[in-house]
Structure formats: C-alpha cells, structure tokens
Amino acid sequence: MNDHLATRGEFARQADIARTLGSPFVAKILEAGERHLGRAPRTAALIRSWPGDPSAAALAMRFNAAIHALARRGRPRRLESLYRRQHDDFDGAIAAAMASEDAFIAHWMQQPPQTNEVNRAAAILSALMVAGDRFGLPFELLELGSSAGLNLNLVLYAYDLGGLAAGAADSPVRIAPTWYGAQPPRAAIEVITAQGVDLHPLDAADEATRDRLLSFVFADQPLRAERLRHALDLAQRHKPRITRADAVSWLAEQLAEPQAAGAAARCSIRWCCNIWKPPTARSRPT
Questions:
Q1: Which of 60-64, 204-208, 238-242, 254-258 is the least confident region?
Q2: Do 225 and 214 meet the contact criterion of CB atoms below 8 Å apart?
Q3: Any idea of the CA torsion for 140, 143, 146, 148, to the nearest 10 degrees?
C-alpha cells in the first residue's frame, strides 16, 4: 500500500465533514495533507501501521491539530502565513510543513486528542433548568471524562438559549447555540458541588495544555477559539475539582455517598448526555 492510499478515504471523509460543519479551510488542510503525505515518511508510516480503526482514533483530526499547532508556533513561515490568510497556497504550505516538521507531526499524532468544548454546556444547563423548575432544589454535578473540567464551571457562563438569557450575565464566556423549539423554563440554577473524574485530567493553567486544546479547535472557527480561551482563563480563577481515577469505580463511590440535605439527586454528566434520577423523599427539604 502506498502512502497516498494509506489515508485515502479517511482524510477525504473528514474533509467532507469539515465542510459540512462550515470549515472549508480545515477541509483544504486535510486534502493537501493527503496529497503530500509522501513528504513526511514518519507520519506516513505511523498512519499506515496504525492499529485499529483510524476513524475511531480520529487520525485526521490529530493531523489537522498538529498542522494547526505548527502554525501557532510560526513554523514554517509559509504555513503561518497561510493560517493568517496572507495567501491560499495550501499545497505549498502543507508540503513545506510536512517535509520540515515530520517528527513533530508524528509525535503529536501519537498523543490522544484533547478537546473540552464548552458550547455543550448549553444542553446541560437547559436540562438542569427543566429539572430545577420541576423540583426547585439545588444540584450536585458529577462529570465523567472531565478533561480540563471546563464544563464543571457551567454556572459561570452566560447563555442565550433561543432568546432566553441565563447564567452569569457578565461572564466573558458567552454561549449562544443554534436553537430549535421552545425555550427551557426560566429557572434559577444553584450548584452546591461540581466535581469530575478523568484518567488524565488537564490543568487549565498549563501552557502546553492550553496550546493543545486550542490547536484542536478548527482554525476557521475563531469564535469557538475565543470562547475556549476565556473558559481556560476562568478555570484558572475557579479551578475545577477533578479526580484522577477510573470513571466507573469513581461514579459508584460518589453515588454511594449520602447527599447534602435539600439537594436534588446527583446529576451525572458524560459529555452532553445527562443521566437523571428524580429526587427521593430523603433529598427534599424538610
């Protein structure tokens, strides 16, 4: 199998997805990367010998983030100027980067992807507003796979939920998802505790961590990158509580602990999926 065939399909498929998501710049990066993979023998060998499903491993997204990380470092100059929209020679810039930075790209791609998308907090907060309107109780939040724990700070963000303002109005983190259907009920949300678990929790104050998270943001989505920067800054002032542990055993331990008096049943969050157990009589105010 030659180097081009090693990525044919996966990079092209992800390029199509990127265009669908409104990121034509990223699509062109992936397509140019496929065309010039022969200039990066280490990266080509890594992709060719990757064990398992390349889609499940997000190899194309790892490659895109590696190229973005190089551009953020200003090397090579031709690549940096492409990302600054000073020219549109994708083939020339990507070919130069792959030839000179093969070792960097291959090393970057061996590390697991790191994302911590705070925009999904809108779905979580909306669910909490529905539960809060029904039960009128504060919450204890448990998050699985917390990464840097940015979603644990969800009450510190400002939201526009289909025209309904919620959260902290003066927050620098502003979340306004595309909204369909009715607004959630107007309910004040009180979070007593918020804690998470991750096998490899990230520190929002660590520069390498910040760089890696920002590199995985699509380069033609500047508002998303700005929101992430603000969320990382906020996490340094309000440090999320994250335990390094296996999620299954940690969650079982947390759910076995008695709740604070007057708290709603604990909400367990995994990404944007919510597991909700209605409050028991014991958890209601007396």
A1: 254-258
A2: yes
A3: -10
**pLDDT band, residue 268 (cuts 50/70/90):** low
Structure-token pair, residue 279: 């409050």
How is residue 131 written in tokens?
């539960």
Residue written as tokens 């993979």?
A: 37
Q: Which amino acid is at 95?
A: A
Dihedral of the alpha carbons of 229, 230, 235, 236, in degrees to the nearest 10: 80
Q: How far apart are CA 266 and CA 284, in angstroms?
A: 13
State the alpha helices, DSSP H only, in 50-158: 59-73, 77-83, 90-100, 102-110, 121-135
Q: Extract the tokens encoding 14.
A: 């992800």
Residue pair 267/142 in contact (Cβ under 8 Å)? The answer is: yes
Tokens found for residue 59? 């190899």
